[in-house]
Structure to design on (298 residues):
């Protein structure tokens, strides 16, 4: 809990950042939904509360903060600590690859490392980004990967699907924000069930893949995310099996599947010994994302 009697001792932005970083470090909260340390999370929440840009911190560090501003910051910090609500749910926004997305707890917080591959236009597996004309984003959630793909592959039309109507409302809000309504259409569908028959250049999917044991041991912050977007069944492979069973008919002859499986590499290898994907390394992950071309899918 926050001690509000400290208000009279906190005068500048530098003071409140130092104070918040200290109490975050002492609180035992989990970092991993946008920032990975107390200092960065403190800065993010404080600057958001003050409506200040994150890229000009230095010029404001010694600025005085009013008592009302301090109370507003401490209220936000208190909710973060006491309720273990991830910062992005408190601010209703999340940054991914420099793009801002509106979110609430109907969608998981955008953090997929697939975004890093999209920013690089899936090179070297896609040689010419302008040759890509059709992309399917399964389990779109907030729509973040579909939106990033639309910017990376300028000639493409995209379909973004999700089983959750509430999630699709968030995706549509983000699609409208980036004025991509003419290029990204949304479909409420349980994986491929309601998607019209069509063959895509690229299928992207960040499905629920957390196995039951891991799900039951996640930090408290994850309990604020929709369970349907995390739960991959006993071994994390429930949705993966369904995807690999049907995705082939939705790919062009030279199409590729980009599929995230998180930390379920061992379970994947146990179930799919006949599949030899390309495992893609990103700046923070290894053996979390696979690429498969159509010929590699049984």
């Amino acid at each position: 809990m926050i001690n509000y009697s400290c208000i009279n001792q906190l005068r500048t932005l530098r003071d409140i950042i130092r104070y918040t970083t200290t109490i975050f470090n002492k609180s035992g909260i989990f970092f991993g939904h946008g920032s990975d340390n107390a200092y960065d999370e403190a800065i993010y929440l404080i600057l958001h509360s003050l409506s200040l840009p994150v890229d000009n911190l230095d010029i404001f560090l010694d600025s005085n903060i009013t008592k009302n501003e301090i109370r507003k910051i401490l209220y936000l910090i208190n909710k973060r600590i006491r309720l273990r609500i991830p910062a992005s749910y408190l601010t209703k926004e999340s940054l991914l690859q420099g793009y801002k997305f509106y979110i609430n707890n109907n969608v998981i917080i955008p953090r997929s490392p697939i975004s890093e591959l999209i920013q690089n236009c899936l090179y070297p597996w896609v040689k010419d980004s302008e040759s890509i004309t059709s992309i399917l984003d399964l389990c779109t959630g907030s729509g973040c990967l579909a939106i990033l793909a639309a910017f990376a592959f300028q000639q493409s039309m995209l379909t973004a699907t999700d089983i959750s109507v509430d999630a699709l409302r968030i995706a549509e809000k983000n699609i409208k924000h980036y004025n991509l309504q003419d290029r990204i259409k949304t479909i409420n569908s349980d994986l491929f069930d309601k998607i019209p028959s069509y063959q895509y250049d690229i299928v992207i999917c960040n499905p629920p893949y957390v196995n039951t044991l891991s799900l039951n041991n996640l930090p408290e912050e994850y309990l604020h995310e929709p369970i349907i977007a995390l739960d991959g069944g006993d071994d994390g492979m429930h949705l993966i099996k369904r995807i690999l069973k049907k995705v082939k008919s939705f790919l062009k002859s030279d199409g590729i599947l980009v599929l995230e499986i998180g930390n379920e590499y061992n379970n994947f290898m146990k179930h799919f010994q006949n599949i030899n994907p390309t495992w893609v390394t990103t700046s923070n992950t290894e053996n979390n994302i696979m690429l498969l071309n159509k010929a590699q899918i049984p």
